Protein: DUF4179 domain-containing protein
Organism: Salegentibacter agarivorans
Amino acid sequence: MKKDNINELFKELDFDNKEPASGHKARFLRKLEEQNGKTNTSGSSPHKRSIWAPMLSVAAILAIAFMVFAGFFNENASRNSGELASVSPEMKETQQFYTQLIKTELATLEAENTPETEAIVNDALTQLEKLETEYEKLKKDLQNSGKDKRVIYAMISNFQQRINLLNEVLEQIENIKTLKNQSDENYI
């Protein structure tokens, strides 16, 4: 039944199946050549490809490849930097914690630098520089050892030594302040 409906539909539709007029192909090609002549003012033939298109494609591919490889090498460089943070996310948190704590304690120490405590503060800063130099050596050792646990523990211990040093110096400064206040009270 449906075949009959489809056949009737095709019978009712008038398809244009006439031949084009004679010379149609020649007129079409002539118009096409005229149009190409107007758009192509450089004088080259319309079939030549522009040399810029392949060069731009190669340049784009090289730029993308460079970005990919630069990101890859940068990621590897940060992994092999010798920092404690490169070992694991937990060690990164540990390093951030100790670093922030040391900065806070160091700022407190520098705020307490007075003529009475200058010698102690300078000595503490010298000791901190030594510990920082030792830490730089440990970073190289970590990089060379392939993240040996002993080196990791030594790095954490170095952080703890710096914090202990700063705490001891701050306690000594507090004692000096207390003694100074007591001597000033006795003097009055």
